[in-house]
Specification:
32% of the residues lie in helices and 35% in strands. The protein has 240 residues and is α+β, with helices and mostly antiparallel strands. The protein has two domains: 67 residues; 169 residues, no CATH class.
């Protein structure tokens, strides 16, 4: 009798063990499904957030340029040439003036730059224009330069080298589909620019062959950087 009871108890324990193992497996599978679902939801959420950010930036770009329709005249230029020569062009008492300085004998010495009639024509006529269709152009003496159509998802990007090669003048993260990077809305960039295409607007005469045009949302100014891609010569033009 005891032997029979023992066999029944053993059989019951075996069945209970099987049920327990199966239950553990089912619970584990359920947890894995939940984890997979959670990861899937996280991925979907990230994708949605990324799309939202892109749409927000595109809407911000259009809104920004819409509010900037019209003319923005040149207000100042700063230039740096060679080892230590600096030049500044600015409006004083309603008139354009310019000065230049360099280091000599450990001291920075400078003086005024005599502006020719041609220089004054360029300075007085240079402007950035945002048209009704939100395209951008630089005008100087009624001639159009660097025209760029409105692009929702990027800028006019004509770089042959990497932005890292010009990191002192543009973000190293700049891409063809960039809009806002930090405080700047990038609109146009091009390197290896031919001399006839850029020489006339290179007022500081630094032999520039790279151009970057952007809008600074912090200072509310357009900025155009003209610089030499192979050396330290550079100049920055500000438009208000």
């Amino acid at each position: 009798m005891n032997i029979i009871k023992f066999k029944k108890m053993k059989k019951a324990m075996t069945i209970f063990g099987v049920i327990l193992v199966v239950s553990v497996i089912l619970i584990s599978c359920g947890d894995n499904k939940k984890n997979d679902q959670t990861q899937s939801n996280d991925s979907t959420s990230k994708a949605v957030n990324s799309d939202s950010i892109v749409k927000e930036e595109l809407s911000r770009k259009k809104s920004t340029l819409t509010n900037l329709k019209g003319e923005h005249k040149l207000s100042s230029i700063s230039g740096f040439m060679g080892a230590n020569t600096m030049a500044d062009y600015f409006i004083e008492n309603g008139k354009w003036t310019a000065s230049e300085s360099s280091i000599s004998g450990g001291m920075r010495e400078g003086g005024d730059i005599e502006l020719s009639k041609d220089d004054l024509k360029k300075l007085q006529s240079m402007k950035i224009v945002i048209s009704e269709d939100l395209s951008l152009s630089l005008f100087c003496n009624n001639k159009e330069y660097f025209k760029t159509p409105y692009q929702e998802d990027g800028l006019s990007f004509f770089l042959k080298k990497s932005p890292k090669d010009y990191e002192s003048h543009m973000s190293i993260n700049l891409k063809s589909n960039s809009t806002f990077i930090d405080d700047d809305l990038y609109l146009y960039t091009k390197d290896n620019v031919k001399e006839p295409e850029i020489n006339y607007v290179d007022i500081v005469q630094i032999a520039a062959d790279v151009v970057v045009i952007k809008y600074n949302t912090k200072t509310n100014e357009f900025e155009m950087d003209l610089f030499c891609g192979d050396c330290c010569n550079n100049s920055s033009y500000t438009f208000k």
